[in-house]
Automatic annotation (TrEMBL):
Stretches that traverse the bilayer: 21-47, 53-74, 86-105, 125-142, 176-195, 215-238, 250-271, 313-331, 343-363, 391-413
Keywords attached to this entry: Membrane, Transmembrane, Transmembrane helix
Keyword match ATP-binding: no
Signal peptide region: none
Organism: Streptomyces inusitatus
NCBIfam families: streptophobe (NF038391)
Domain of life of the organism encoding this protein: Bacteria
Protein's name in the database: Integral membrane protein
InterPro entries on file: Streptophobe (IPR047724)
Length: 432
């Protein structure tokens, strides 16, 4: 039974073309993922890779963007070997696919006040089945190997002993990619239902709408605004400082990685990382300078300010953005909500958001070439790059920021309501 007492007639009663809608949603999501990844990889120069590898690199980037696993490996016969590891999320690609998938999932549900649990499950199941097939195709296609041209010691000894040229390659882990890709889909659909004010919910979940949806919506707006600000800065940099292709590659592959990292730094978080060897990171030169510190890079406001004092404005920017998110949450909450509830909900939402940022932005990449299993002798082919957060301090700072801005946002919303500027949530229609 639905909330109005009418029987739940199931998904087919309302949407006989459910499979067509699911197919359109998955196809549009794949198109957004592939186009964004292809443009980013092209701007990064991967179109010149040998062996017609470009489309397979694009497939690998898409696999990583949806949480899949890509293994990097190499070898050079029986007496030489290459080792490699790569853990990273191209969040620009992830975000493009997530926005399209969320829109496609919500579109058939618009103008509905309540939806049955069976209908939601059926819609999600159809999308999940088609998404599984897409993941299988991507994972099977995302594999390639390349010949590596070493220099220095390995090249000399290899020629002397007749060792084959070393090769490096990548291969998607098919079972793990399917499992992680389905988890990504499930998490995205849950977030979509939590964020959207217009999306109907089953009657049993309506009581969670008031405490969850305003905070979840505010966090998504916060993250998107950060990306929008970063995009504006990137356009200015590309237009005024040269190297537009490199800037475009960063924007199309890792813009959220940088902007969300900057948000946590503005909140006072500290990240640990390092860069050794010839890695060319798609990050601002300021961040790379800190990461290449001889004793390892500690990335926070203090270390960044040693190279560029303008980063001291990051806390101001973070304060403005967080206060704006807290105000948005408060005005979308019922007028009866107390200040301490605004503060607690903002703190909880911000802690979860920062946790997501810490897990998604961290990266690790290693490459090493050895002969006879002894050392890294690659004459510049040994390299390592990593960045990881100091998690518990970042979450603690997020809780403090959330409590403070949640309280202030509640006060601002209360003042706006007294002036008659914003009606309470309970006075609005269900489709607004």
């Amino acid at each position: 039974m639905s909330q109005q007492g009418t029987p739940d007639r199931g998904p087919t009663a309302h949407h006989p073309n459910g499979w067509a809608q699911a197919l359109a949603t998955v196809a549009a999501t794949l198109a957004a993922l592939i186009v964004t990844a292809a443009l980013g990889v092209w701007a990064a120069g991967a179109a010149a890779l040998p062996g017609s590898a470009f489309p397979r690199v694009v497939a690998a980037v898409v696999v990583m963007a949806v949480g899949g696993s890509v293994d990097v490996s190499g070898d050079a016969g029986g007496i030489a070997a290459a080792r490699a590891e790569l853990t990273a999320l191209p969040l620009s690609v992830t975000l493009a696919g997530a926005l399209v998938l969320a829109a496609g999932f919500l579109r058939p549900l618009r103008h509905r006040a309540v939806v049955g649990t069976r209908e939601l499950v059926a819609r999600a199941a159809r999308i999940a089945l088609l998404w599984t097939l897409a993941l299988l195709a991507l994972a099977l296609f995302a594999r390639q190997s390349f010949a590596v041209r070493p220099g220095g010691t390995v090249s000399d000894i290899g020629e002397l002993l007749g060792v084959d040229a070393p090769r490096a390659g990548f291969r998607a882990d098919v079972p793990l990619t399917v499992v992680l890709g389905l988890l990504w889909l499930a998490a995205l659909l849950l977030i979509t239902l939590a964020v959207s004010r217009a999306a109907p919910l089953p009657g049993a979940l309506l009581r969670y709408q008031e405490p969850v949806r305003p905070a979840a919506h505010a966090m998504v707006v916060l993250l998107l605004v950060c990306v929008g600000v970063g995009a504006a800065v990137g356009i200015v940099v590309a237009a005024t400082r040269g190297k537009p292709a490199e800037t475009l590659a960063v924007m199309l592959l890792g813009l959220p990685n940088l902007t969300w990292l900057a948000l946590t730094l503005g909140m006072g978080a500290t990240w640990d990382g390092k860069v050794e060897g010839p890695f060319g990171l798609p990050v601002p030169r300021l961040l790379e300078q800190v990461l290449r510190a001889p004793d390892g890079g500690v990335v926070n406001l203090g270390t960044l300010a040693e190279y560029d004092g303008r980063v001291r404005w990051l806390p101001v920017a973070a304060a403005v953005l967080l206060l704006g998110a807290a105000y948005l949450m408060a005005v979308r909450s019922p007028a009866r909500t107390r200040l301490w509830q605004h503060a607690v909900r903002m703190a909880a939402a911000l802690v979860l958001t920062v946790l997501m940022i810490c897990l998604a932005v961290r990266f690790e990449a290693r490459y090493g070439l050895s002969l006879f299993g002894i050392g890294d002798l690659g004459g510049g082919l040994s390299a390592e790059a990593a960045l990881s957060p100091r998690l518990w301090s970042a979450l603690g700072l997020a809780a403090l920021w959330g409590l403070a801005t949640g309280c202030l946002g509640g006060l601002l919303a209360r003042s706006a309501r007294r002036r008659g500027g914003t009606p309470p949530l309970r006075d609005r229609g269900p489709g607004e």
